Automatic annotation (TrEMBL), chain A:
PANTHER family: ABC TRANSPORTER I FAMILY MEMBER 6, CHLOROPLASTIC (PTHR43204). Residues 9-250 form the ABC transporter domain. It comes from Streptomonospora mangrovi. Keywords: ATP-binding, Nucleotide-binding. InterPro entries: AAA+_ATPase (IPR003593), ABC_transporter-like_ATP-bd (IPR003439), FeS-cluster_ATPase_SufC (IPR010230), P-loop_NTPase (IPR027417). This is Fe-S cluster assembly ATPase SufC. It holds the Pfam family ABC_tran. It comes from the Bacteria. NCBIfam families: sufC.
TrEMBL record, chain B:
Signal peptide: none annotated. It comes from the Bacteria. GO terms for biological process: iron-sulfur cluster assembly. The lineage of its organism: Bacteria, Bacillati, Actinomycetota, Actinomycetes, Streptosporangiales. Belongs to the iron-sulfur cluster assembly SufBD family. PANTHER family: PROTEIN ABCI7, CHLOROPLASTIC (PTHR43575:SF1). This is Fe-S cluster assembly protein SufD. Residues 138-361 form the SUF system FeS cluster assembly SufBD core domain. InterPro entries: Fe-S_cluster_assembly_SufBD, SUF_FeS_clus_asmbl_SufBD_core, SUF_FeS_clus_asmbl_SufBD_sf, SUF_FeS_clus_asmbl_SufD.
């Protein structure tokens, strides 16, 4: 049983050498293993900022508050330590790393997270199976990390990593954006496998209720103006779908 | 750092100012036609002349020893011939003083090596040419590789040991032939090497070069390509890892003097350590009256520590409106933070992430070398350098 706590987090985006801007204005959220929290909110409200700041992206800095994973201070950890502690971020825009092959990358990361190198044969079987489950062609293993992948292919590979790394807490930032109808089902099934087999706690950032039909959330939060503006059950998603964010944007406009 | 020039650029060369497009015309086998460089000349300004140990002024005491061994499959002819053999010096004119001095001096060290891939022959295995310096003094060499019409072969030049060495290498790729060259500068740390590699590419012929420079105190290598028929295709790939105190200079010249020719130049290097200095000069000329030229050149430098210096200068001279495509790019910088972040966000520790990205930077290029054992060796040596600079 894992408890992931975000308490009073404020964060800046680092723009230039001197320039920065506060984006997160006090975020509170607790996620327990097995729970799925959907985060919905207008463009530019800071959802990705929250995800990146928690992962330790060099362009963001948390200026106040704390992030705890089973009581451990995540913010004192380096980026890789956070991942090894059990945090995972599927990025809205996965990064291309030319020249580093996907298979080499996956083997290195699995080795790092599990603390020992998996047996070659067993790993290649595991990889093959995981790729098959996400309808990823085996030829991708030889390509550079995300290099020249289409938007949807990148998203599938993020979920491939989710399945291989078996984190305690997964933050999925718009994993559903840019997926065709079939891919959405395939990717949702991957997320659900991770929920069932590892009891992972999920923060699912999305703009669409469509994915929520496949990956049922336990809670839905509205993110606006750099904080959580309202929380509710799955029914809140439907209400947002029909009403939009107008009342939250207005409420947040003054700050 | 990178200052791309477009249009006619004057080079200072001897008495008069001439554009790079006239260099070959002004070549000469006589060292006396080239004044001793002072370091102010355009083509010498990046080279620390003192560290040439006399190769440029004509020390020619010839007290060094460099042995050359050649291993070739049966279908490839290997000969040692005198300088007056008609096949020697037929495809080039020295275009600087060191090249002319090497021409002048190599007979003191024996004969020229001539490797011939006969007409229509596909060499079943690579030809290995290994030059090993055993005595650190000045030494000179000359090599001719001829790929006769419709033949194909891979030649691996390997330089090792310790020497102060200047050589001219002629690659003659005749009509419809295909020649791949890997030139591995794997010298001991105190070696000095100035090399000119002249490729002549015939009609519909294909030349591919992989220059890998890892060793030496100073290596200055000038690969040039000239076309003698239409439809020629040349690719020059380069890789260097310039460590503490090393000077690695690569100066390519592609002369698109025929129509419908293609060239690609891609040089990539990493620098680490105090006073590591890498120079890349990429000259491309698209000649008057030609059409259908397709040319692109690219230099990338990965700066791994403080205290290094990169000079990267692409030059493109176009004398015709009928160009299919011509471009250049040059970029030097640190490892990308965001690349490292992505790898680390998957649990990979920072130093390993760095190594993966650097390895990846080189791997792209190394993977294109078709000789498997060489790929592994080069990667292993890059790894070794990586490890020693951390
Ligand atoms: N380098 C930057 N300079 C200025 N503003 C920035 C910079 N980087 C991010 N921001 C701003 O931070 C705000 C929050 O961005 P963020 O990506 O977190 O939004 P989001 O909620 O994920 O939006 P979306 O739904 O469109 O993905 C945006 O207004 C964005 O413009
Ligand atoms: Mg976003």
């Amino acid at each position: 049983m894992t408890k992931f706590e975000i308490r009073g987090v404020r964060a800046d985006v680092l723009i230039g050498a001197e320039e920065r801007e506060e984006i997160l204005k006090g975020v509170d959220l607790t996620i327990n293993s097995g729970e799925t929290h959907a985060i919905m909110g207008p463009n530019g409200s800071g959802k990705s900022t929250l995800a990146y700041a928690i992962a330790g992206h060099p362009k963001y800095e948390i200026t106040a508050g704390e992030v705890l994973l089973d009581g451990e201070n995540v913010l004192e950890m380096s980026v890789d330590e956070r991942a090894r502690a059990g945090l995972f971020l599927a990025m809205q825009y996965p990064v291309e790393v030319p020249g580093v092959s996907m298979s080499n990358f996956l083997r290195s990361s699995v080795t790092a997270v599990r603390g020992e190198a998996p047996k070659l044969r067993a790993f290649s079987k595991e990889l093959q199976q995981a790729m098959g489950g996400l309808a990823i062609d085996s030829s991708f293993a030889a390509r550079g990390v995300n290099e020249g992948f289409s938007g949807g292919e990148k998203k599938r590979h993020e979920i491939l990593q989710l399945e291989l790394l078996k984190p305690k807490i997964a933050i999925l930032d718009e994993t559903d954006s840019g997926l065709d109808v079939d891919a959405l089902k395939v990717v949702s099934a991957g997320i659900n496998r991770a929920r069932e087999t590892n009891d992972v706690g999920v923060m699912l950032i999305t703009h669409y209720t469509r994915i929520l039909n496949y990956v049922r959330p336990d809670y839905v939060h509205v993110f606006a103006g750099g904080r959580i503006a309202e929380s509710g059950g799955p029914e809140l998603a439907d209400r947002l779908e029909s009403e939009g964010y107008e009342r939250f944007v207005k409420a947040g406009a003054g700050q | 750092m990178a200052s791309p020039n477009l249009g006619i650029r004057e080079h200072s060369h001897g008495a008069g100012e001439i554009p790079i497009s006239r260099l070959d015309v002004h070549g000469s086998f006589d060292p006396q036609s080239f004044p001793v460089p002072t370091g102010r000349e355009e083509e010498w300004r990046f080279t620390p002349l003192r560290r040439l140990r006399g190769l440029h002024d004509g020390r020619t005491i010839a007290d060094g020893v460099v042995g050359v061994e050649i291993q070739a499959p049966g279908e490839v002819r290997v000969e040692r011939v005198d300088r007056d053999d008609p096949r020697v010096g037929a495809s080039f004119l020295p275009n600087d003083r060191v090249s002319a001095l090497a021409w002048d001096s190599f007979p003191q060290f024996g004969q020229a090596n001539v490797i011939t891939v006969p007409k229509g022959t596909e060499a079943g295995a690579p030809v290995f040419v290994k030059a090993t310096g055993t005595t650190h003094g000045d030494a000179y060499g000359h090599l001719v590789v001829r790929a006769e019409p419709q033949s194909s072969a891979t030649v691996v030049l390997e330089y090792a040991g310790s020497a102060v060495y200047a050589d001219n290498v002629e690659f003659v790729v005749e009509d419809g032939a295909s020649l791949t060259v890997v030139s591995l500068q794997d010298w001991d740390r105190d070696a000095v090497h100035v090399s000119h590699q002249f490729a002549t590419v015939g009609r519909d012929a294909r030349f591919r070069s992989f220059v890998v420079t890892l060793g030496g105190d100073l290596v200055r290598l000038s690969p040039s390509v000239r076309y003698v028929g239409t439809g020629g295709d040349a690719e020059l790939h380069g890789l260097y890892y310039t460590g503490k105190g090393q000077h690695h200079e690569h100066r390519s010249l592609i002369d698109h003097n025929e129509s419908n020719t293609r060239s690609r130049v891609e040089y990539k290097g990493a620098l680490s350590g105090e006073d590591a200095h890498a120079v890349w000069i990429g000259d491309v000329i698209i000649g008057e009256g030609t059409s259908g030229t397709d040319s692109y050149e690219h230099n990338r430098n990965l700066v791994l520590t403080d205290g290094t210096r990169v000079d990267s200068v692409p030059n493109l001279e176009i004398f015709t409106g009928e160009v299919e495509g011509a471009g250049h790019a040059s970029a030097s910088g640190r490892l990308d933070d965001i690349h490292l972040f992505y790898l680390q966000s998957r649990g990979i520790p920072a130093d390993e992430a760095r190594r993966l990205v650097i390895r990846g930077f080189f791997q792209e290029l190394i993977n294109r070398i078709e000789v498997a054992e060489l790929r592994e060796r080069i990667m292993a040596e890059v790894e070794e350098k990586l490890a020693s600079h951390e």
